[in-house]
Design a protein that fits this description.
Largest sheet: none
Structural class: mainly alpha
Number of domains: 1
Strand content: under 5%
Radius of gyration: 18 Å
Distance between the termini: 6 Å
Helix content: over 70%
């Protein structure tokens, strides 16, 4: 927490933090890519009641959203306010609007996939190829952004990078499971490898480019909206029959860790 205060003071003085070490971020990117590669092969994640591991991962993701993501949206808003001082009240809440746009975009994609599965577009459980590629393209962009933020996100230390990477790893387990349900054949054959490559592409982009603090704030806000939607839609609906004990343990344990870092 002291590191975050120091980072804000540096930003207020006009000093931009150095990005995370490329090797540390590379290790994190490789781990995240590996999660995409292996999650569809994991046994015991499907069925009802919900897997205890998915409920635990959902709790960790929810803790990350409320302890880290939402406060960082406030910081991102302050960053944009400083970058565009002439915006006045017109753009007073524009970071939050970007976050809402991210949430709405991923919600729309999920509803399209769910309706397609119910209609049985292809006569079976799998959705159409066109919808599959729309879904994968959206999540690939999501992953490029995550890979980029491994290097240029608001990580004040190696521990901060590690907590971000771990939260994204368990988040990927949850979203991969959902994508595998929507597109069971295509996701295993192609989709997971595209998403794994997208994380690495984001890291590679981060080693070559560095956008402004205001740009990072906008990117983070869009990512935050997507994370919030994907976490809540996977864990909270009644039909999931989630394991509340594992969910609560994930929230409590990871919240304690985030507050300690």
């Amino acid at each position: 927490m002291h590191g975050r205060v120091a980072a804000r003071l540096l930003r207020g003085a006009g000093i931009r933090q150095a990005p995370a070490m490329p090797i540390d971020a590379l290790a994190a990117a490789l781990i995240l890519a590996a999660v995409h590669a292996v999650t569809p092969a994991l046994r015991g994640l499907g069925g009802t009641p919900r897997s205890v591991w998915l409920s635990l991962a959902g709790g960790i993701s929810v803790a990350y959203v409320f302890i880290h993501v939402l406060p960082e949206l406030g910081n991102a808003q302050a960053t944009l306010r400083e970058a565009i001082p002439t915006a006045g009240d017109f753009l007073e809440h524009h970071v939050y609007l970007v976050a809402v746009a991210g949430l709405a975009a991923f919600y729309g994609l999920d509803r399209m996939a769910l309706r397609a599965r119910r209609r049985g577009e292809t006569g079976g459980a799998e959705t159409s190829a066109g919808l599959f590629w729309i879904h994968i393209a959206a999540f690939a962009a999501y992953n490029v952004l995550i890979g980029y933020l491994l290097l240029h996100g608001d990580h004040e230390s190696a521990a901060g990078l590690a907590t971000f990477a771990f939260a994204m790893a368990v988040h990927f387990v949850v979203t991969d499971h959902a994508l595998d349900l929507h597109h069971p054949g295509r996701y295993r054959r192609v989709g997971r490898w595209v998403l794994a490559g997208a994380v690495m592409a984001g890291w590679a982009l981060g080693t070559r480019t560095a956008i402004t603090e205001a740009g990072i704030a906008v990117l983070f806000a869009f990512l935050a909206g997507g994370v919030i939607l994907n976490v809540l839609k996977e864990e909270l609906p009644e039909e999931r029959d989630s394991r509340y004990g594992a969910f609560a343990l994930g929230i409590a344990g990871y919240a304690a860790l985030l507050l300690a870092v």
